[in-house]
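Hi,

I'm pasting everything inline rather than attaching a file, because the server keeps stripping attachments. The sequence lines come first, and each chain or strand is labelled.
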Amino acid sequence: MSLAGSLFGKSKLYAEHVKVYPQRIWGRFRKLKWTTLAVLLGIYYLVPWIRWDRGPNVPDQAVLIDMGGRRAYFLWIEIWPQEVYYLTGLLILGAFGLFFATSLLGRVWCGFTCPQTVWTDLFMQVERWIEGDRNARMKLDQQGFSLGKASRKMAKHAVWLLIALATGGAWAMYFDDAPTLLRRFFTGDASQLQYIFVALFTATTYVLAGWAREQVCIYMCPWPRFQAAMFDEHSLLVTYETWRGEPRAHLKRETAAIAASGEKAGDCIDCGLCVRVCPTGIDIRNGQQLACIGCGLCIDACNSVMEKIGRPLELITYDALSAQADRAAGRPPKRRLVRPRTIIYAVAILLVGVGMLASLSLRSRLDISLLADRSPLFVRLKDGGIQNAYTLKILNMQQKSGEFSIDVRGIDGLEMKLIGTETGHILVTPDAVGTFRLLLQVPKGAAPAGSTPISVTVKNLATGEESLHDAIFNAPAL
Amino acid sequence: MTDLYRDDVTGKETTGHEWDGIRELNTPLPKWWLMVLYACILWSIGYWVVYPAWPSLTSYTKGVIGYNSRADLSNQIASAAEAQAHWLDAIENTSPEAIANDPELLNFAMAGGRATFNENCAPCHAVGGAGRPGFPVLADDEWIWGGTLADISLTLQHGIRAADNADTRNNLMPRFGADQILDQNQINDVAEFVLSLGNRAEDSAAAERGRQLFADNCAACHGPAGEGVRELGSPNLADEIWLYGADKAGIVAQIYQPRMGVMPAWGERLDSARIKMLAVYVHSLGGGE
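And the predicted assembly:
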């Protein structure tokens, strides 16, 4: 065989997919996972149904991203498109929150709150109800075709698809009035885009939670690849206490053999339950690894066994590496929550949070935009004066009508005229943009040649809020 | 001869083709790829049946659903018109003055007016009513035939010197030079007098001589002080706006053999809602009267 053959012929380019059949387990972490699942799914499915009175012409929905109306609503907060930087702030908060939680508690996000974990857990539970636990499922998959197998498989996929449809549907409800959308969805009156998005999120939920599962975490998600950089020896992690568990001995005979060789057998009886309950199919006793999502189900598994055979619990433990080292050396375990990195992340969260709150409470509810006509740049008037025209937009972002006045400065003798309204009382309807044509006139000889900077100030007569916009007045270059 | 040989490196069979010891691996198309190809062929046959596809000598196959891109376009235009119907009806039933006082209708009329203007008026009057030499600026405050909404509507409806329109705006300036009503020197003097109305005379003696000539020949239409007469559509000669050139040469040329612009009667081409939107838009360009 050639050299190339020996290089390529033996190693495989692709890892064979081994199907994972996680076994049912009950314990502290399973309980915690069910609780978070119930809370998170409850929030996801129910939030669009919270009503919030917003007056006429706007859906009375507490949380809504209204693409058509170009507004986003969160309880009493209303966001206009140009304020979308609050989204950036939320993303930064989310990132720092993730770093903070990870440096303190390890992969809690992955193990408990990540949507992939939550929906996979739900889908696995459906699978268990319909096809039975691990052994029953493995047996079923090895069987040939039968009516019973087909009906079970079909029932499972039907329930999965229903959950997926509810998930996709709930997503669309964040973008439209929930009760109206629900009705229209089933009468066929929803928009094509809504059907497309619901179908898309139904498909991704079904595929990711039903089929892809742990492969999303191991191959698709970037988070596992770099979060080890967030850990240190004080982060709480799901780990196997090697010093106590090894050497493993799963039979009395083996224990006797180890004892005969002068060693003491470890606490691990190599029952393999921790591997069988793992949703990503790994062996935690091999140490920290990328595929471990830190859900703690192996802890529940190991504790249940330790309890039965009367050995100390927490052989697999959710603890800091430093505390384990302490225990291994016979010292009392120490855990440090306050560390440079947790302080830095906490301060960053605090700064961004305070900054966002401050900017939110101080943000202006008035904005203007001014666009000068380009054709013609200016016109000469009968008396030799020069006139420039502008499109003025007043953004009245408050929930009531606004009365505004306008003031222009920069050239002596400048006069203004607004088409369709008076310069002293410009009325703009609530939560709307008023568009006006602004004409500025300068008497003959008063306008400097070429471009002159001017400033336009619009003032809310009721609140005194002002918005200033710089502009240019054009005159002939002489 | 064919020598079906299994390749060591890849473990694949070869096709039996060999050139100087180099063998060709047998790498058949993946099954899914072939299936996609066959599906596309089936799809295209379905397409021929459903959509217009094959030409014949005089016609073409129409397809079972009777699709036709031209009909599709008219449907789209019809549905766009239907979507606008609410607004266009409101414009139709409202006077231009009332439109200008209703912020919502005004916004719609400005947008509709701008689109109609850019399609129909901008070739002569330029985008934004900036005007071109010989075509009036619509964004200033000089209106030869009047700048109120009603005046602008009338001008739009019937045009200026429009052929075959009984109500069109019409006037005629005599060809003082070409028809030898005034001689060369007299034209020079009148031109100097016209320049003097804006204090721009180069030869005050000539301007003084032109005063009487202006009173005799021009004042009937342009007014005693050259201020223009709106009803006759005769321009103001005492202001700073000049349609055919502000310099003396331009004025002399206009007296010798006047140019007089023509504007189509748009009432014959556009519906009344569009005329109204145009009037409102044009009125807003420079503020109107």
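The longest strand of chain B covers residues 14-19.

If the labels don't parse on your end, tell me and I'll reformat.
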